[in-house]
Amino acid sequence: MSEDKKRQAKDYLVRAGERGQESPVRHPLNPNSEVYYTALSDRVGMKRVQLALGRLPPGRESFAYHSHMAQEEFVYILSGTGEAEIGEETFEVGPGDYMGFPTDGTAHNLKNIGQEDLVYLMGGERTDLEVAHFPHHGKVLISHPDLLYLIDEKALEKKTREEWISESRPAKDQAPADN
After folding, report:
1. What is the rounded distance in angstroms from the CA atom of residue 107 to the CA atom of residue 30?
2. What is the pLDDT of residues 6-29, one digit of tens each?
């Protein structure tokens, strides 16, 4: 019998009064980052999708301006007033507003510009490997469940897939190496 079959129906429900403790999170690249995070999807055993309740105090930011290369992300505002920095623009956001971030390189961040807490749902994919870009800081983060690598963007050699493949082919006048 699988692990899921042993669970009771109530194990798939997280009631408002039973969400558990908030976890404060501050992004190391942004001293103004201060989000209080309550994991929801973990509480019901979800493995491929993550969902959390986020709470930003007035004047604080969620993380650091970033984009994703492997995991899509979304934010749905429940209460409060925020400012979303998306690409080169900023937008005031409030209850009912939804932001979705595919892996197209569009950077984003959220700031509470109101007088009350900004409360929102945030979620997305959960994969073993994520690569995030922090363009304001010139950093790239490679994230694995056990390790995080924060790399100076200048140290990276950037190539398109086509460049990589063409450079790996032997020249037409060069014989393949014997193995």
Report:
1. 15
2. 889 999 999 998 888 899 999 999
**Does any domain span residue 141?**
no
34 falls within a domain: yes
122, part of any domain: yes
Residue 165 belongs to some domain of the structure:
no
CATH number at residue 81: 2.60.120.10
Please calculate the CA angle 69-70-74 and round it to the nearest 5 degrees: 90
Residue 37 burial (10 A CB sphere; 0-12, 13-18, 19+): middle
One-character DSSP codes across 111-163: EE-SSS-EEEEEEEE--S-EEEEETTTTEEEEE-SS-EEEEEGGGPPP--HHH
Mean pLDDT of 125-143: 95
Partners of 79 in the β-ladder: 119
Tokens describing residue 145: 């469940």
